[in-house]
Amino acid sequence: MSGRAEQLRLVEALLFAVAEPIGQEALARHLDEAADIAGLLRELAESYAGRGVNLVRLAGGWTFRTAPDLADKLRVERPVARKLSRAAVETLAVIAYHQPVTRAEIEQIRGVALGKGTIDTLMEAGWVRPKGRRAGPGRPLLWVTTPGFLVHFGLDSLNELPGLDELRAAGLLELTPFILPEQAGEKDAEPEVRIEP
Amino acid sequence: MSGRAEQLRLVEALLFAVAEPIGQEALARHLDEAADIAGLLRELAESYAGRGVNLVRLAGGWTFRTAPDLADKLRVERPVARKLSRAAVETLAVIAYHQPVTRAEIEQIRGVALGKGTIDTLMEAGWVRPKGRRAGPGRPLLWVTTPGFLVHFGLDSLNELPGLDELRAAGLLELTPFILPEQAGEKDAEPEVRIEP
Amino acid sequence: MTEATPHPPAPRVPPSRSEQLVLELDGYEGPIDLLLTLAREQKVDLGKISILALADQYLAFIARQRSLSLEIAADYLVMAAWLAYLKSRLLLPQPPQDEEPSGIELAAQLEHRLRLLEAMQIAGGRLMARPRTGQDVFLRGAPEGLAVVPVPVYELALYELLRAYGDGRRRTEAAVLTIEPAEFYSMDDALSRLARFIGRVPNWRELASFLPRELRGELFRRSALAATFAATLELARRGRVELRQDRSFGPIYLRSFAPAAAQGLGAAA
């Protein structure tokens, strides 16, 4: 292999292995005095142009950097477990049982105004989505559950959600005397405004 | 630019962005399902062969590293690693070739008690670790090598240990109990029978 | 490549031939290692060495050390004793009904141990001779890393969903029962309130002064005014109070009917 090719290999290896951008003087210490370092760097930079990794000048030295246009793909997604607020769970339930339903109707059914982020959170979870608008004044958005909602809760269809009578029979509509639900569950949500009739 | 060229760029950037070897499955998460990852890696490895940086398989994954023949010219960049004692080298070899192996078996093969610091040194280097216990009296700890061992010694897997096949053929990887003079090396070792609750 | 062996160090002696020997012994990784070194001096393949000659060499080596009054680690002496035993088994004919392994079996075992140790010594050397990462070859020195994008995952069981729906329904139903009746002041409320004042109001007083003091909003105030007015009409009809209004939309005044009649009515009630 020619001397110049060997020099190119060495410069490539040095630039790859060092932790910081490396200047021409520092490179010179590893090469023959006669080496044309500027020329070697130019040649190397050209051979990496348009590739996944580029040779760039940074902080007065030279270093390899991944190509900027690939930044979006050089990411790893990491699942982070989150808990839904009480208000979000209840809103999801109302949408599931009353869909398609407007925001105002959800508020009417729950008796409290919806916090700002509640529906956003449910959309982020992939469980609800807007679908069409109700005819009438203001043409409000209608909310429905998604197929992801059915998958998450292991339901084949919305018909599998227990009806009111079944809920009552299962004890899910019974009064539990010592808990005031509106205070117990919702303190982590933003304050909700009671609606006056 | 064609899809394959883009995929090559992305694989190159991914491998540059991470210092540890990356497995094919991990690479696949960043690419289209249809991508021929093995083919892409082969093509990339070929294009880097003979250069200052090579694409190699290490510890079951893929990684770029500097070409081995440049070692002399690169070494000045790093402090010289502490030299391992002869006992440590032999102990590492016994663990690597006979794993999983107990402390008593290491002593049996070497015919001498293990010094206190020997396994410590190997653990500190990140090359060996305890993994499980051998069923039987005293339930002694078993020692194995780590992925860091493979990376440090440039091995893709334990099957690449030098001379493994010849040793196996010569029957030197089976540990048969010795009748005498076993006690020679072992009497100043710490008692091997540890009573576990 | 030396390390402190776990054996007691040999005593220091003045520079001489004996020190050379001490250092030599100190340099071995135990008796097997010493045996292996001696075997290598026979310069033949381990399979062809003479175990008998090897035992002699070892015993001579140890004897030489002892003749120099050097302390020899116990494990080297144990090995010497065992080799002397092996020698006798190899040289003397085996007695009949001897359960112990023959000299040839023992020699084969020793040979196996020597080969095993030699194999590991060679393997260790070959490992160390490989290009070593971080020393001879280098991984990426400045890895940029991969950006981590957190993806929220929400956990919710069907039971929690149904429970929340049930709780919500219950809350809105309960509100109708408990809050709404309290929003109005009924005529019965007004009658029972006025009953406390009848007989104790000899002079004219404004109707408004009999309204409840609680401030519960406009709706409640107006229902209280209406209920109290209706109640005073009822009381006037029964002859319990007198009412007076001086002009249209003017204030309404109220007093107990008459002290004597009121007492009589009070006693009757």
Structure description:
The complex is a heterotrimer, with two copies of chain A (197 residues) and one copy of chain C (269 residues). Chain A has three domains: 3-74, Winged helix-like DNA-binding domain superfamily/Winged helix DNA-binding domain (Arc Repressor Mutant, subunit A, Orthogonal Bundle); 86-161, Arc Repressor Mutant, subunit A (Orthogonal Bundle); 163-197, no CATH class. Chain A has 197 residues and is α+β, with helices and mostly antiparallel strands. In chain A, a hairpin with a 2-residue loop joins strand 1 and strand 2 (61-66). In chain A, strands 1-2 form a two-stranded antiparallel sheet. In chain A, strands 4-5 form a two-stranded antiparallel ribbon. Chain A has helices at 3-17, 24-28, 37-48, 86-98, 103-110, 118-124, 147-152, 164-169, 181-184; strands at 53-58, 61-66, 75-82, 128-133, 141-145. In chain A, helix 1 crosses helix 3. Helices cover 53% and strands 7% of the residues of chain C. Chain C is built from nine helices and four strands. In chain C, helix 4 (74-91) crosses helix 5 (103-129) and helix 7 (187-195) crosses helix 8. The model of chain C is unreliable at 1-23, 175-180 and 261-269 (pLDDT under 50). The interface between B and C is large, with 64 and 50 residues.
